[in-house]
UniProtKB/TrEMBL annotation:
One of its GO terms (biological process) is base-excision repair. It is an enzyme of class 3 (hydrolase). This is Adenine DNA glycosylase. Keywords: 4Fe-4S, DNA damage, DNA repair, Glycosidase, Hydrolase, Iron, Iron-sulfur, Metal-binding. SMART domains: ENDO3c. Belongs to the Nth/MutY family. Adenine glycosylase active on G-A mispairs. MutY also corrects error-prone DNA synthesis past GO lesions which are due to the oxidatively damaged form of guanine: 7,8-dihydro-8-oxoguanine (8-oxo-dGTP). Residues 34-185 form the HhH-GPD domain. The lineage of its organism: Bacteria, Pseudomonadati, Bacteroidota, Bacteroidia, Marinilabiliales. Binds 1 [4Fe-4S] cluster. SUPFAM superfamilies: DNA-glycosylase, Nudix. The keyword Transmembrane does not apply. GO terms for molecular function: 4 iron, 4 sulfur cluster binding; 8-oxo-7,8-dihydroguanine DNA N-glycosylase activity; adenine/guanine mispair binding; metal ion binding; oxidized purine DNA binding; purine-specific mismatch base pair DNA N-glycosylase activity.
Length: 347
DNA sequence: AAGGCGGGGCC
DNA sequence: GGCCCAGCCTT
């Protein structure tokens, strides 16, 4: 009856979210990809814009990749957008544009793992798959007092099995939404609302006052420091932009010409670097200002970013071969990482 | 099994 | 400042 209590809680407490008012697997897919490691409040606006621009999977499949990335700009984890685009193409090619309706076929699509395949199978096709995400892990580990780590292979089996057992014969699309929403709103990571929780008497963590002990801690990631010096090289109406490679972070996104150093540099030292001198050998340059030191934090890197403004003659801008020359009015056509976007917006 | 990959909200 | 989030892919 535990699942009934969670579903009952859900009916009274659920949020009205746009992707809950459809059974279109395409829309549900888009929402699930956006929601990976991303909170609901962040996703909503992106979801509307994306669906509005690409109402069907064919619209997405035939789109230009830069436009897809552009709609993703600021949402992070850009591989999600590239995989989404690739998967849309393969659905059009292999399934005539009709989203596959079995768990196994859905799981084959690029960017879709066990969680997302289960979610789509349950929400769009009402198939009995338990979608186990961070919320579900937290709820189950607290209720049952599971000490297994949630990301170990054995832990995944344990939680998947517990979730399916708990679902029992409840409607999959309702049960999954309910337990996920319960984790997001009631059984939160910090300061869970145990005082108003209908599951108190059945919850191992509450009974033993160990809410903070579950789920078990995952290993910490090592954070590395990197130092980025972005050169904003501009004339009256144009500036330079280059595209990042396909290794490293922010693959294929556009940014200002970059000098990366192993540690902090002073402006004087920066000007002395060979790279710098060779680029500007024949140009008259003028460092107009030197602003905005900031630290941009990624999940595994701290980027110490400094923007250096350099005004040059329009004729000199044309000397930079292999670097894009962009009109200040057309920045919207280039998907950029957050710090670049923010800097341009602040000018 | 571990590392890479964004950005924002919250305490 | 650290933790967490509707994870997945590559090595």
């Amino acid at each position: 009856m535990l699942n009934r209590e969670i579903i009952n809680w859900y009916e009274f407490n659920k949020r009205d979210l746009p992707w809950r008012n459809t059974t279109d697997p395409y829309k549900i897919w888009i929402s699930e990809i956006m929601l990976q490691q991303t909170q609901v409040v962040t996703v909503v606006d992106y979801y509307y814009r994306f669906i509005n621009r690409f109402p069907t999977i064919k619209d997405l499949a035939f789109a230009d990749e830069n436009e897809v990335l552009n709609l993703w700009q600021g949402l992070g984890y850009y591989s999600r957008a590239r995989n989404l685009h690739q998967a849309a193409k393969s659905v059009v090619a292999d399934y005539n544009g009709v989203f596959p309706d079995s768990f196994e076929e859905i799981l084959k699509l690029k960017g879709i793992g066990v969680y997302t395949a289960s979610a789509i199978a349950a929400f769009a096709f009402h198939l009995p798959h338990a979608a186990v995400d961070g919320n579900v892990n937290r709820v189950l580990s607290r209720i049952y007092g599971v000490s297994e780590s949630t990301n170990s292979p054995n832990g995944k089996r344990v939680f998947q099995s517990l979730a399916e057992e708990l679902m029992s014969d409840a409607p999959p699309h309702i049960y999954n939404q309910a337990i996920i929403e319960f984790g997001a709103l009631q059984c939160t990571p910090k300061n869970p609302s145990c005082d108003s929780c209908p599951l108190q008497v059945q919850c191992f963590a509450y009974i033993n006052k160990q809410q903070d002990a579950f789920p078990v801690k995952k290993k910490k990631v090592k954070i590395t420091d990197r130092y980025f010096y972005y050169l904003f090289i501009y004339s009256d109406d144009q500036f330079l932009l280059q595209q990042r490679g396909d290794r490293d972070i922010w693959r294929k996104l556009f940014e200002f010409p970059l000098i990366e150093a192993n540690n902090k540099l002073e402006l004087v030292d920066l000007i002395k670097t060979k790279e710098w001198l060779s680029v500007f050998k024949d140009s008259k340059l003028e460092i107009t200002n030197h602003i905005s030191r900031k630290v941009h934090k990624l999940s595994h890197q701290n980027l110490h970013i400094e923007f250096v403004h350099i005004k040059v003659e329009t004729s000199d801008l044309n000397k930079f071969e292999s670097i894009l020359l962009v009109d200040k009015e057309s920045v919207a056509g280039y998907p950029m990482p957050r710090p670049i976007e923010m800097h341009l917006a602040s000018l």
